[in-house]
Design a protein that fits this description.
This protein is of the alpha+beta class. The protein contains nine helices and 13 strands. The two termini are 20 Å apart.
Length: 292
């Protein structure tokens, strides 16, 4: 995804510093360490009440939805990401690791920085996911110290219900095993290239729901209920939204509206981009080999 080199370095003026990047890989590497949560932020989060944690989780969820829409559209219309970022209030970006300054610097440039913008959004979404994981842990621990879930359920039921809602709709599940070996989550927002030989099939989990991809003259997607869909050349969106190429059961709330994008760019060749909250998982060996 990031192997494009430039004829001359591209300069970015971030804050009071100037950085030069010879390739997209250089830029991606500079952001890789900015996806965790700094200790100062964690310290401030520890002081929040359960209600404040819940409010922050909901805010992050709303921001993630906006980013997913932007990234999804940018796959089909690469130039759209420039306009979309400029229309966003820079204040929604955290000041941790200089994220706000990075986005502001990118907004100063033209279309030549569109790939930089896409990489930045991908990495910032990974940073937000890290924050959500910490919020989930803190929220759960604080609830334990007030009332047990059983006591809450026997009483008004409000605390227990709210905890379940928070865990089931706001946060990402842990990675899980499979008969094919340990599953690995696709990196959120990043495209993963695969070549699926005719007749081969692989298991793919959308959150916890087992689906399949089957190679052939045309690649087939089989959903959790066994329904078969023929994927078209170009962009295919898998999700609950009515605009999806493959629209899944709207009752499956842990599957995102725009969950997974599968781009078919040749015979049995495809790129998978996870845009979901609860993840898309494949056996790690598939991601390592990339030709099946």
């Amino acid at each position: 995804m990031f192997n494009k080199f430039f004829s001359k370095p591209i300069e970015l003026h971030i804050g009071e510093q100037t950085f030069k990047f010879c390739s997209l890989s250089d830029f991606e590497f500079s952001l890789a360490g900015r996806t965790s949560v700094p200790s100062k932020k964690i310290t401030s989060m520890v002081k929040l009440s359960p209600e404040e944690l819940k409010k922050e989780a909901l805010t992050i969820k709303g921001i993630e939805k906006r980013f997913v829409t932007i990234l999804s559209k940018s796959i089909e219309e690469p130039g759209s990401i420039n306009r979309a970022l400029r229309e966003m209030d820079p204040q929604i970006f955290s000041q941790d690791y200089g994220w706000r300054d990075i986005i502001s610097a990118l907004n100063e440039g033209g279309v030549e920085l569109d790939e930089f913008r896409r990489i930045s959004l991908v990495k910032y979404m990974q940073y937000l996911s890290s924050r959500q994981e910490i919020i989930k842990y803190l929220y759960s621990e604080k609830k334990k110290h007030t009332k047990t879930r059983a006591e809450s359920d026997e009483g008004t039921g409000v605390d227990f219900k709210e905890t379940l809602i928070l865990e089931n709709t706001l946060f990402e599940p842990l990675q899980r095993g499979s008969d094919n070996g340990d599953l690995e989550r696709l990196p959120k927002g990043e495209s993963v290239s695969l070549s699926l030989k005719s007749g081969r099939e692989i298991e793919i989990l959308l959150s916890k729901h087992k689906c399949k991809l089957i190679g052939g003259d045309k690649i087939q997607f089989v959903d959790q209920s066994g329904r078969n869909y023929t994927l078209k050349q170009g962009r295919n969106v898998i999700g609950r939204d009515s605009i999806s190429t493959v629209m899944l059961d709207p009752a499956l709330r842990d599957i995102s509206r725009l969950h997974l994008v599968i781009e078919i760019d040749g015979e049995n060749r495809m790129q998978l981009t996870d845009l979901s909250s609860h993840g898309t998982f494949m056996a790690a060996r598939y991601l390592a080999n990339q030709t099946l």
